[in-house]
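Exercise 7b. Backbone tokens:
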């Protein structure tokens, strides 16, 4: 069962009205085409940072009972690309700390080879199992997507964000940034994010927010992964955000459960105490912040609700996975062997239309159908094989 903060849900829904202003500001600053794509993203993209998927959810509501959920996506309009698996940190929650993978960056020509095969992109997440800003082509990749008016979101610790890079993100018009920040104190933050500097990260975030000024984009949100180290600091994290960034506009504060694997299972919190949840909401309301929490517990939701398959993930080396939900499991060799194909070997459309990939899309939501091998060990939905 998923424990989630549902109080304030109406407030969250009503809060989406702010995107009307974002639409017109994008139109004024960058032209109608960029604003139109932003609107389409909010209407049709359900999964991922910044997504809302109003019409997609309506289609899901109609088609799921009919067993035709796969009709929702004839060809992907949202993708995730792993831009690097190079990292100079040893965060205790990350599989990167525990693997022995060869380290490399995605090259710019490899990046182009991917995005050129998706003419109607509405959303791209440019993040990997590493520090994206270490890739010397990262800013150029982001800029290329924005030149094509594609909505772009990224997740980062911001420990390596320099003023030059922050200004580049602002100038190109990045749509949204989720800042990974897993502690309310310096001690906890640096214990979890080994190699990150608390003061430097605060300084980097403050610079970006100040440079952004009154513009509504990029939307800056905070993501806090709940662990045994920091579960008691959740309310204090709201205080910390206000103390450090209270003068700036913040999108929302998001608390998420740990996607654990054997090496990190001891840090998993099965259930957040109700008194902590109450206090998180109380402090969020005190400062006017939108707070969201989705915390996987002992059981996960039924796979009949899964639509993550509509958002393919390109793992380093060109391997095509169903989505990002099978990642952070520290089994990358297995994922490579289970990949639907490699975009360096054949066009994505051929991979997408392959017999195996089509079977997965047609059957992954059917509870009476075998669980696809790629999806076993899913981090987001129920795995009847017991591998999640």
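Sequence design result:
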């Amino acid at each position: 069962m998923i424990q989630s903060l549902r109080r304030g849900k109406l407030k969250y829904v009503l809060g989406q009205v702010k995107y009307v202003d974002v639409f017109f500001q994008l139109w004024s600053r960058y032209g109608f085409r960029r604003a139109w794509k932003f609107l389409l993203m909010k209407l049709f993209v359900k999964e991922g940072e910044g997504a809302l998927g109003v019409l997609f959810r309506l289609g899901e509501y109609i088609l799921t009972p009919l067993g035709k959920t796969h009709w929702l996506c004839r060809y992907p309009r949202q993708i995730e690309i792993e831009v690097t698996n190079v990292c100079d940190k040893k965060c205790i929650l990350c599989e990167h700390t525990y693997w022995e993978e060869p380290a490399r960056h995605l090259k710019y020509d490899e990046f182009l080879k991917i995005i050129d095969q998706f003419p109607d992109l509405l959303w791209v997440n440019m993040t990997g199992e590493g520090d994206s800003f270490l890739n010397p082509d990262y800013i150029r990749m982001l800029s290329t997507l924005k030149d094509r008016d594609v909505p772009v979101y990224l997740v980062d610790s911001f420990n390596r964000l320099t003023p030059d890079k922050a200004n580049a993100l602002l100038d190109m018009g990045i749509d949204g940034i989720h800042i990974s920040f897993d502690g309310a104190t310096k001690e906890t933050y640096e214990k979890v994010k080994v190699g990150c500097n608390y003061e430097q990260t605060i300084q980097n975030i403050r610079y970006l927010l100040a440079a952004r000024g009154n513009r509504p984009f990029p939307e800056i949100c905070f993501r806090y992964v709940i662990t045994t180290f920091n579960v008691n600091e959740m309310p204090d994290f709201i205080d910390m955000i206000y103390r450090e960034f209270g003068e700036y506009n913040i999108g929302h504060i998001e608390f998420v459960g740990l996607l654990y694997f054997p090496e990190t299972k001891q840090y998993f919190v099965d259930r957040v105490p109700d008194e902590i949840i109450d206090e998180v909401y109380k402090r969020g309301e005190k400062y006017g912040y939108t707070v969201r929490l989705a915390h996987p517990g002992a059981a996960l939701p039924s796979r009949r609700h899964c639509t993550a398959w509509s958002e393919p993930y390109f793992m380093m080396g060109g391997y095509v996975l169903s989505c990002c939900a099978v990642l952070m499991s520290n089994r990358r060799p297995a994922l490579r062997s289970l990949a639907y194909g490699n975009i360096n070997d054949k066009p994505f459309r051929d991979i997408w239309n392959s017999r195996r990939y089509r079977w997965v899309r047609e059957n992954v939501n059917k509870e009476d159908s075998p669980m696809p091998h790629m999806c076993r060990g899913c981090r987001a939905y129920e795995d009847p094989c017991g591998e999640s």
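Instructor comment: Confidence is low (pLDDT under 50) at residues 1-6. The beta strands are 2-4, 78-81, 123-126, 152-156, 176-180, 219-226, 253-257, 291-296, 313-315, 319-321.
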